[in-house]
Amino acid sequence: RALRKAYCQQDQEKTGRWSMKNVNRKGQSISASSNSTMYYKLNNLGMFSTWNAPRNFMRNAGPIVEQMQNLRVFTREEIRKITNGYSSDVIAKCSSCEVYKGTLEDNTLVAVNIETAVDEAHSESFTNSMLIYSIILHNNIIKLLGCYLEADVPILVYEFAANGNLQDILRGNYSFPLGIRLDIAVGCAEALAYLHSRSFAFVGANVTSANILLDDSLVPKVSGPLFICHSISSTSGDVYSFGILLLELITRKQGGYRNNSPQELRKAYMKKGHTMFDKEIAAKADILILERIQMVAMDCLKLDALARPKMAEVAERLQRLKNVESTGSELRELSMLRRLVASSISKARENTTPAT
């Protein structure tokens, strides 16, 4: 079955498009009633009417998007076919957004993001973010493949992340070796460093384990960025949130740190020491590298925003740790291990009985 919980948390966190919160946990197939409800919503968005299609196409920057070689403009019928008439698996659902697992004509799996409740102001910012997102090319940022522009708000088609989000993996009873966790940390850090190096910044509230998607090889994909002009507050906020993410990776405790102040986090570190580390990865031989990862996290969590390192520096420090721990044959072994763990997680998720 499709992922029971995945991406969308826009209902509670206005800054994100992908997460596992507010997802329909019942795991039931779409009933005739829900199909009818979705049809009504989509009809209101102009999906089944050509009346406003030309106006929406122009308002959603259709002529500009058509010139972008790396972005496909889908027709209404193509979106309907990709989602099997909106009866394919719903991988996320909240009051303002529904995400479908779909299939392109070449059998490529995709995630189709449909906004079902928007206002005029959000519609404009959504279109602007879509245009910026379309020019981002980084292996650790979820890729926007295309869009449908004749609805009130563009329907977006993303690459599909087969292993859901990092938060689910950390919460699940999956084997999750240190080498893979460090690999994920490096990938996320490099993605944020890339975004910070552009003329826009990645809003920090999205840097959470729930918004880190994992593909079928456990390659991390930062998802749902919003874009604003460069500012110290925005980039340093990303750094702080990334520090929390690092702690979650090495402790396997999600969310518990986010409500704590930097002082409280440092006190907990001094008090608990090595006992904070997840037992699965706290082998004696790995304590030193765990301590170094923790120190990177503590630097990211400094109270003074100006004293926090840049994401480029964070990525470089983590990459050095990865290189020290994994060289030559060990890198090949890590690649093989990643495939094995990814396969194990995928099978476990497929066999998981949907929660009721």
Automatic annotation (TrEMBL):
Pfam families found in the cross-reference section: PK_Tyr_Ser-Thr
Protein name: Protein kinase domain-containing protein
The keyword ATP-binding is annotated on this UniProt entry: yes
Entry-linked Gene3D superfamilies: Phosphorylase Kinase, domain 1, Transferase(Phosphotransferase) domain 1
Keyword vocabulary terms for this entry: ATP-binding, Nucleotide-binding
GO MF annotation list: ATP binding; protein serine/threonine kinase activity
Single GO cellular component term: plasma membrane
Coiled-coil zones: none
Organism for this UniProt entry: Aegilops tauschii subsp. strangulata (Goatgrass)
Protein's UniProt keywords contain Nucleus: no
Domain Protein kinase positions: 76-356
One annotated GO biological process: cell surface receptor signaling pathway
InterPro entries associated with the record: Kinase-like_dom_sf, Prot_kinase_dom, Ser-Thr/Tyr_kinase_cat_dom, WAK-like
